[in-house]
Amino acid sequence: MSFRRSAVALCAAVATGLSISPAQAAVVAEPIEYSAPGAALSLNPIGAYDSGVFDESAAEIVAYHAGSQRVLTINALSGNIDLLDISDPTNPNKVGEVSAGAGNGINSVAIRADGLAVANVEPSDKTAEGSMLFFDATTGEVLGTILLGNDGEHDAALPDMVGISADGRYAFSANEGEPAEDYSFDPEGSVSIVALPKKVQAPSQSDVRVADFRAFNTPGALPEGVRIFGQVGDSTTVAQNLEPEYITEIDGKLYTTLQENNAVAVVDLESATVEKILPLGYQDHSVIPLDASDRDGGINIRTWPVKGIHQPDAIGAYTAANGRNHLVMANEGDARDWDGYSEEARLKNVELCEGYQGLTAGEIEHLQSDEGAGRLNVTTTEGLNEDGSCHTQLYSYGSRSFSVIDTEGRLIFNSGDDFEQILAKAVPEYFNSNHSESNLEGRSDDKGPEPEGLTLGEIDGRTYAFVGLERIGGIMVYDITDPAHSKFVTYVNNRDFAISMEDSADVDADLPKAGDLGPEGLTFIPAADSPNRKNLLVVGNEVSGTTTIFQIDGHELRPEGSSFSSSLG
Fold it and tell me: Is the pTM of this model over 0.90?
């Protein structure tokens, strides 16, 4: 074994029978609820497990195993997977943990129906080869590990999202391959596919295959509209620049978001090859409004001559009522902003070409003012004129929305400005608040509510998208059964804005009262697999360190004074 491989070898351990944490997770007394008239569903927090740790990513990605009635929660702070017993979903308890060993971090976890669990493991050097850890979800027993590069020719660095195919035959990993902080090296992005044994046991190293992006290094092979920028040195390839983030599977195809590149890659599961890359386009904020400033005197959702780069994080796949497969994406946005390179700037600090977008000098001055859109974060890499001296078009990060596309990349639905319009009505005092601090418009100048996490669920023959808003918090629920006519259903936020953790003088006392901060991972539990035979939603909240269980009740919810009709149908 080479030094490079031995340096990232895992020392896995498990501890079971742990005592219950004394921290008492709070379901706040009055969760924020805002629904469409006649909403078919309500989302009600019924229980939570509290790690007792603030703003240290102590609860991130979550997964559920029906056979053991356990939720597995990624605890990035400890580098462990917390095993939570939710046989009583109103009182989840920690019963064990699985570790990838000192110096290693765990980024994601997935579970097969028989209890075979797989986790993606990142070594202390994020540019080194990543690994997959296998364990039994029912006992916590570690079964073994494999390296994700397999052949010595692929970096397989920074394994982010992990999943298991619907038929249980494969595990797959989106290997992001981020550059080093000092920009001295940039690994290739890739997708690893691992053939799984039929029994609850670890696969062998020979079961790993890697789908790489090297075919797109050929000039002209990359579709127009895929962002390739900020490369490390003159010799950096397209394959190094592409960064898989989140991954889903349907009908033998993998679809992985290339977040920074604003695209989705399509990978054939059986052959382990990248078939194509789908560019995702932009949100035109001269048509779709946004609140672009945290210093404009309050809520000011209006149009600006700026385009939003969708840059989705989480992705899900489903078969719609028309029998066709569709992809659903949470359009978070993400800048490359490292010690050695940054593409991010305030709009007021970039040079606009004379007569930008047909504006007068006075209109440009207002656009670049703090009261206008001057504080909005934009990229310095796109929209430049031929000599690169000024911008003919501005691009901001994320589109503050979620999208439904078909498997050819055609846009079927986008929620537009729905999220901000809903939040302006639901929580006007804390519109676009940050997660660690309760404030008004703290995130308007960046990515607004910042939709990041997403899961899909089928209830009574209808498909729903549950979208987590990372900053202000809460879950947006949409009925996407007919994707072209997706409709807002309800928004629920288990948060008490009266508790501002950033300003807290007693974090230990205030954290349990604050509720959920920073939703990251979501998983849907259908009633047939649920401990209480009700449809449930489990959410991992990275800032509050809470894992919260919501019960989905199927009845009409008509809150007094609520009225909302999606601007997009």
Answer: yes
